[in-house]
């Protein structure tokens, strides 16, 4: 009886947590199908309306923002950052985990030390560098600073340390493999779950980034999704939240599809090592 009661309590708590997590997305989708007047109604409208197509039409024909173009800009930036992050972080992680070279410990400590520095402190010097390079309103202004991160290197280093046996690497060396061959033939096939986990986290971070793109992307042609959401409303007197929520649904859909496609690998990467002795 105690086990059944405890299990029931756990299930109830899990359902509550799921409800709290899902409700904001449900409410966002409901508002996207309503008008500005219906959103302010009391009691609030908690079921879907019939204005979704009209709201989408306003988004696609908006005078301030070419929303499809902004989604294309964001996709280019997010995909470029994700690919470079996976490649460079896995290469550095493999080097720290399975190669021996002078200064390895100090360099790893230095990389980890950068995690202690708030990202906001680097905005001004980073902006000055981008300005000197004349990269304002250019994809490179957003892509290059995000190509690799200390978290990505550390995450890959820890995963490779746990999942790629040193004996297998030494066997590859005996067979005449060079470092890049060891990485490509031994490490890469083993760390697919880590790729999925880091890839999803990186893509989500790049897709949802607002602060840095709002600083370096000034023209309407180079806006990203998160910046464009603030410029959708054409009214000077009030903000049409139904329009913003409809655009938010469109902006959230790619993230949902990516997670749905890679969720097994993502969960495997997050939980790897949890059941190992």
A few lines on this structure:
With 277 residues, the protein is mainly alpha-helical.
What does this structure look like?
Pfam families: BPD_transp_1. It is a multi-pass membrane protein. Keywords: Cell membrane, Membrane, Transmembrane, Transmembrane helix, Transport. This protein has 277 residues and is mainly α. It contains 14 helices and no strands. The chain has helices spanning 2-31, 36-39, 52-60, 67-98, 104-113, 123-132, 139-143, 150-163, 166-174, 179-190, 192-208, 211-216, 225-228, 241-271. Helix 1 packs antiparallel against helix 14 (241-271) and helix 11 runs antiparallel to helix 14 (241-271). It is globular. The two termini are 31 Å apart. Mean pLDDT is 87; it is low at 273-277.
Largest sheet: none
Low-confidence stretches: 273-277
How helical, in percent, are the residues?
55-70%
Q: Quick one: overall form?
A: globular
Overall CATH architecture: Orthogonal Bundle
Q: What string gives the helices and strands in order?
A: HHHHHHHHHHHHHH
What share of the residues does DSSP label as strand, in percent? Answer: under 5%
Number of strands: 0
User: Mean pLDDT across all residues, rounded?
Assistant: 87
**What is Rg?**
23 Å
Structure annotation, total helices = 14
Structural class: mainly alpha
The first-level CATH class name? Mainly Alpha
Roughly how many Å apart are the termini? 31 Å
Task: Name the CATH homologous superfamily.
Answer: MetI-like
The name of the CATH topology is MetI-like fold
Subcellular location: Cell membrane
Membrane topology: Multi-pass membrane protein
Main location: membrane
Family: Belongs to the binding-protein-dependent transport system permease family.
């Amino acid at each position: 009886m105690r086990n059944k009661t405890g299990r029931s309590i756990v299930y109830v708590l899990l359902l509550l947590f799921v409800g709290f997590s899902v409700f904001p997305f449900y409410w966002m989708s409901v508002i996207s199908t309503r008008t500005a007047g219906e959103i302010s109604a009391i009691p609030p409208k908690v079921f879907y309306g019939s204005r979704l197509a009209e709201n989408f039409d306003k988004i696609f024909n908006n005078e301030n923002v070419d929303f499809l173009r902004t989604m294309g800009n964001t996709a280019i930036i997010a995909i470029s950052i994700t690919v470079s992050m996976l490649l460079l972080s896995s290469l550095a992680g493999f080097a720290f985990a399975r190669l021996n070279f002078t200064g390895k410990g100090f360099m790893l400590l230095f990389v980890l030390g950068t995690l202690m520095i708030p990202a906001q402190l680097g905005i001004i010097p980073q902006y000055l560098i981008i300005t000197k390079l004349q990269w304002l309103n250019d994809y490179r202004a957003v892509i290059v600073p995000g190509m690799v991160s200390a978290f990505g290197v550390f995450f890959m280093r820890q995963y490779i340390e746990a999942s790629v046996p040193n004996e297998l690497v030494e066997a590859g060396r005996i067979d005449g493999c060079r470092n890049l061959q060891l990485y490509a033939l031994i490490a890469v096939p083993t760390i697919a779950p880590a790729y999925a986990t880091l890839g999803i986290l990186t893509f989500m971070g790049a897709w949802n980034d607002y602060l840095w793109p709002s600083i370096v992307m000034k023209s309407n042609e180079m806006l990203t999704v998160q910046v464009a959401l603030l410029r959708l409303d054409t009214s000077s007197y009030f903000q049409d939240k139904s329009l913003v929520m409809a655009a938010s649904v469109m902006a959230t859909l790619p993230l949902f599809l990516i997670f749905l496609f890679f969720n097994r690998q993502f969960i495997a990467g997050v939980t790897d090592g949890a059941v190992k002795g």
